[in-house]
């Protein structure tokens, strides 16, 4: 499929410099860029069919982790925000399970889309993962499954909602709750959130919505799915340098295999 068959280019002119500048300004200001109805109805239907057919191959896992995604810190107790555990549970199919003719792959590989992402994020280059599993993932959240509170290790993330459940699975976040580059972890602010004293923002989106999110300093989660309809979400991941692989331990944890 061509990029014009996948993206609503009349509404989202990816080659228009003024549109690119507006998107960059929005991401820089809010830490999140939400583009509703980014995908054409025919491409979205193809993505939904692909995700539904691939669900039986998904690797489902459940992990406990800290919001910082770091090992236990012996300097603090188990109840300290650095060590308090949250739960993430989901299914995932990997890049090598995404068909060569998939509109997801066509979008990921399209130079126009990569140039758009580069401009909006300020990256000088974008490269796929070298491990063959991590560039395009489709995530599944069935009833009760969730993505626990965490900060990302990467500077930005790109997601595309394919199917929305009937209840739950809300994307919640707080912008700039820490400053990782300065080493300021804001344990008090994290504790207030985990204790329910701080209310996060909720990002509402429908299928076909593309989201660029800066999650390195903005804590976020996806609340539990409260319906029998599976949440399906594509994650499009790039690197600023070529030849980067997701670590073997991370691949085994999230995918259950190395290749």
TrEMBL record:
Keyword rRNA-binding recorded: no
Protein name (record): 2OG-Fe(II) oxygenase
Domain Fe2OG dioxygenase: 129-240
Pfam family, one: HalD
Organism: Cognatishimia coralii
Family: Belongs to the iron/ascorbate-dependent oxidoreductase family.
Superkingdom classification of source: Bacteria
Record flagged with keyword RNA-binding: no
Keywords, comma-separated and alphabetical: Iron, Metal-binding, Oxidoreductase
Matches recorded under InterPro entries: BesD/HalB-like, Oxoglu/Fe-dep_dioxygenase_dom
């Amino acid at each position: 499929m061509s990029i014009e068959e996948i993206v609503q280019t009349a509404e989202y002119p990816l080659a228009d410099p003024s549109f690119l500048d507006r998107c960059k300004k929005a991401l820089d200001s809010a830490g999140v860029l939400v583009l509703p109805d980014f995908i054409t109805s025919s491409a979205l239907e193809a993505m939904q069919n692909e995700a539904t057919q691939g669900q039986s191959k998904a690797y489902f896992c459940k992990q406990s982790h800290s919001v910082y995604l770091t090992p236990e810190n012996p300097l603090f107790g188990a109840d300290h925000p650095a060590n308090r555990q949250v739960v993430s549970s989901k299914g995932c199919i990997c890049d090598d399970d995404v068909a060569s003719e998939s509109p997801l792959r066509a979008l990921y590989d399209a130079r126009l889309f990569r140039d758009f992402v580069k401009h909006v994020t300020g990256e000088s280059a974008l490269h796929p993962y070298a491990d063959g599993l991590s560039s395009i993932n489709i995530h599944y959240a069935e009833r009760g499954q969730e993505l626990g509170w965490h900060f990302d290790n990467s500077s930005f993330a790109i997601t595309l909602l394919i199917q929305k459940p009937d209840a739950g699975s809300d994307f919640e976040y707080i912008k700039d709750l820490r400053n990782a580059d300065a080493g300021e972890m804001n344990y008090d602010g994290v504790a207030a959130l985990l204790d329910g004293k701080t209310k996060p923002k909720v990002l509402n989106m429908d299928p076909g919505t593309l989201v660029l999110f800066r999650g390195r300093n903005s804590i976020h989660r996806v609340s539990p799915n409260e319906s029998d309809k599976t949440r399906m979400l594509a994650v499009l991941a790039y690197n600023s340098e070529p030849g980067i692989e997701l670590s073997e331990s991370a691949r085994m944890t999230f995918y259950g295999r190395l290749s």
